[in-house]
Amino acid sequence: MSYDGSYGDFALLIVLFIQLIIIGCSCWGGGFGY
């Protein structure tokens, strides 16, 4: 695994996933404590 091109896409997916979790929790009433 090379961290040149694939790592940027992986980090971007992680950021988007975290944003979805935070937005989803705020919309659903703070299921995970947010």
Please characterize this protein's 3D structure.
This protein is an all-alpha fold and 34 residues long. 68% of the residues lie in helices and 0% in strands. It contains one helix and no strands. The longest helix is centred in the middle third of the chain and has 23 residues, at 6-28. It is rod-shaped. The termini are far apart. The mean pLDDT is 73.
Helix content: 55-70%
Characterize the largest beta sheet: strand count, sense, and whether it forms a barrel.
Answer: none
Number of helices: 1
Secondary-structure-derived class: mainly alpha
Strand content: under 5%
Q: In total, how many beta strands?
A: 0
Distance between the termini: 34 Å
Cα shape: rod-shaped
Name some characteristics of this structure.
rod-shaped, single chain, Sporulation protein YjcZ, YjcZ-like, about 35 residues, mainly alpha, membrane, transmembrane
Summarize the SSE layout with pairings:
Elements: H1 6-28
Quick overview:
The chain has 34 residues and is mainly α.
